[in-house]
């Protein structure tokens, strides 16, 4: 799975929201799938800029759980 930086996501969404640039041209310009660009824009509209940030999913487990 490819992971994109929050900076790239914000840049692409910002370009789209400024107007005059289609999702297709943004996907070609940044070498991204059009579906990915569409997904970022939708997430931004629903939840704001925080939705574009990567979330850490790897939680540290307690030592005693590792030994079981």
From TrEMBL:
Residues annotated as domain Insertion element IS150 protein InsJ-like helix-turn-helix: 9-55
Name of the featured protein: Insertion element IS150 protein InsJ-like helix-turn-helix domain-containing protein
Molecular function terms, GO-annotated: sequence-specific DNA binding
Superkingdom classification of source: Bacteria
SUPFAM superfamilies assigned to the protein according to its UniProt record, in alphabetical order: TrpR-like
Transmembrane segment boundaries: none
UniProt-listed Pfam families: HTH_28
InterPro entries: InsJ-like_HTH, Trp_repressor/repl_initiator, WH-like_DNA-bd_sf
